[in-house]
Amino acid sequence: MVAGIAPLRGRRRELAELEALVSRARGGRSGALVLSGEAGVGKTALLDHLAARAAAHVRIERIVASQSEMELAYAGLHQLCGHMMGSAARLPAPQQEAIEVAFGLRSAAAPSPFLVGLALLGLLTEAAEERALLCVVDDAQWLDQASARALAFAARRLDAEGIALVLAMRQADPVFAGLPHRVVEGLGHDDACALLRLAVPGGLDLRVRDQLVAEARGNPLALRELPRALSPAQIAGGFTLTSSLPLESRIEQSLVVQLAPLPAQARLLLLLAAAEPTGDPGLLWRASAVLGLGPEAFDAAKDAEAFVVGTRVGFRHPLVRSAVYRAASPVDRRRVHAALADVTSAEHDPDRRAWHRASATLQPDEEVAADLEKSAVRARTRGGAAAAGAFLERAAELTPSPFRRGQRLIAAAEAKHDAGASDEALHLLGTADALPLTALQEALVVRLRARAGYALRRDRSGAQHLLDAARGLEGLDPVLARDTYIEALAAATYGGRLGDAEQVTAVAHAILGATPTAEGTDRARDLILRGQALLATEGQAAALPTLRRAQRAFLEQAPDFLELHWMWFASRAAQDLWDPAGLRALADRQVELARAEGVVTVLPIALSLLVLVQTIDGDLDAAEASCDEIDAIKEVTGNPLPPYGRLLLTAYRGQADEAERLAGRVRADGLARGEGHALSAANFSEAVLYNGLGRFTEAVASGRRELSYTHELNLAMRTLLELVEAAAHTGERALAEQALEQLAGVTRPVGTSYALAVLAMAEAQLSARDDAEKLFLDAIKRFEHERIPIWVGRCRLLYGEALNRQGRSAEAREQLRAAHQVLTACGVNGFAQRAADELRASGETLRVHAGGPTARLTEQELNVARLAREGLTNREIGARLFISAHTVEYHLRKVFVKLGIKRRTELKPALAGLTATASSV
Length: 921
Fold this sequence. Notes:
The chain is mainly alpha-helical. 66% of the residues lie in helices and 4% in strands. It contains 47 helices and nine strands. It has a five-stranded parallel beta sheet with strand order 2-3-4-1-5, with helices on both faces. The chain has a two-stranded antiparallel ribbon with strand order 6-7. Strands 8-9 form a two-stranded antiparallel sheet. Strand 3, helix 7 (145-157) and strand 4 (163-169) form a beta-alpha-beta unit. Helix 21 (402-418) packs antiparallel against helix 22 (422-432), helix 25 packs parallel to helix 27 and helix 44 packs across helix 46 (885-899). The longest helix has 19 residues, at 439-457. The radius of gyration is 33 Å and the shape is globular. The termini are far apart. 53% of the residues are buried. Keywords: ATP-binding, Nucleotide-binding. Residues 850-915 form the HTH luxR-type domain. This is AAA family ATPase. It comes from Streptomyces tendae.
């Protein structure tokens, strides 16, 4: 009765919320709830009550996380759903591989934590297929980092699977931020007094009662356990609490006092159980035999109601485990860990065995350290960089040789940096400084210190530190030196016009001095590195031959994972070379590689490049779907990538309010972070937007801002064409000619068909009648040959407008009809409307159709509908948007009802009204 009063008194609000969560799961919906509160406040009792009430209606999966397993990657996740792996074969192949590698069931490259999270969502969905599922994780503050992230990932994507997920922890961990959260507070005064009366039968001095209630602050466990440590005289009267320990420590102290009368062997058995969190009774029996603990020890521990041995070993409260472990002497802790290491299989559970051995070891021991190092390698393979760092750090502590200790400290620091703990990495590197290191190790320390420092500060010193590190690696590890050079150049060029030009030049000159000449190598990485350095120091003309060779090398050589590290520069070269085919190939390759390797942190950047390609190709619907995928990934990962793709897309769509809002956001963000590229993106997109809307004065204002920076190429040089068009329409001929001259300087030397088409289109707008006609037709022909429909449409629009101005209405209508048709088909609504307006001016009649029922779709419904329209299956859509296939099906049913359709084949025409705002009669 005492144990049951906590959830029954003063917990109506919490119980109602938990039961509503389960009720929704039974109805086919899903949700998650985080319960937080101090130790002993009643979270476990609430979970017990919930599980008892729900057992008849739902499937229940419940675990208690353990502090001793925090360093074992995916230990908590394996405990929760390891027995669900029979359903793994029904997951998409990348997810199945990711979860199997995470659980050590398969050897492969380290899985993306986000693929593991998506696989977890799939496993839970499969488990809930026949019956609603309740997943409960108690003491979630002790989850290993990898498991916590995977659970948070899945929890945020729950929607229509019939799953209820409850996580109880002492303080809400930031990894679960954004999930519904309920703080479990202490009982009110009346409920606390009632619980205390049950805990202390007989008389209780009122002063003692009031003091106990006040000190316990309504904590049910404190109210039950603290009086047990009092003598009868203290209970009767005159007792005062003088401890200044935190409440949790006082509760643990009380529990230790209660267990103190137990025989030594029983206390050692409890310590053994506390140190072995898997709850495997067989393991406990075998380890107790090693320690010489007989049945009497089990009987005494059970009689004290400290723990229960059944199908699993469990304590009557999670705090008992920590109280027992913390109160034990270091000698006894080492004894139980040694016993557990002896009985843990080196073949089937080598990592847990290694960790027990390390916990049992006091003096340096190379054999134990080597086992930990092997565990770190396995943790890396499973994607547990944080776990690898912990294994390696402990391995370093136990390494007798100073040289090997330094080696392991460096490896531990690198793992911690990769896990996002760059500050901890720097701390370990400080320790390594005092050890004897080889020249290569010293260079690695310099490199890692530069990378970790840049990750933490992102300041201007980062490029110089990375440059110093790259120089130090020359002659020691040329491959790593080039990787570091490219990072230094990226850090230096990141700021663009807002950065330090001298620093860019210094890094570029160092690269030129360290890399072979273009004639001396055919390696793609050497060529792209040298080409970008030449571009920074000597300009476009000097860099073009090397960039062309680098481009060919990247496209001809077989792709590998390392290309993701270099792809940004390779794709930038394709843009600077006005090579749409090369850009398409690189974009497709980068997205394919990022997806195959599960590198979701890189995928948004790769997809942004793909958005640019899809926009150029006139497939704005596909670009919209890619933007939706970027947004889904950013929501899950917190990736800070600015919305460059969405900004460009809204500009071409002619969505003025949204484009202006995004441009303002991108510009402010770029100024705050010192990123000049962001300013170019905002200016270019605004120029496109205003040209499409016929607001040429505003287009001039945006385009003019890029005139001084066209040497940076990329978006700055592409803005020149927009500026020519805007200035020509506003009659600012001198400005248009200035922009044309600069555009010729960056297109004519390249000489590709795309570059020459752009130049011809710009020259046509400033040429006399006959010359203009030839130039327009030449540009249209080249754009058609390069399969760039947007520019075909825009060029025909400009040509039609010019013909209209000459009074050649019939010829103008021919060009304008073609322009309107292609621009409408692409969804380039601003320019399509401009073509429609010009057609009306020439005497042609058009009617405008308002948007259809798509306006009633939610954003997520639109995301799902667009991908379904492209032919993706429910599972494929779920993988793209990081939701379950059940949720996809749920949203599609709503889409069909709202659009009045019955099958997927009807989605394309039904969604057409979303992008096409006008059509000709």
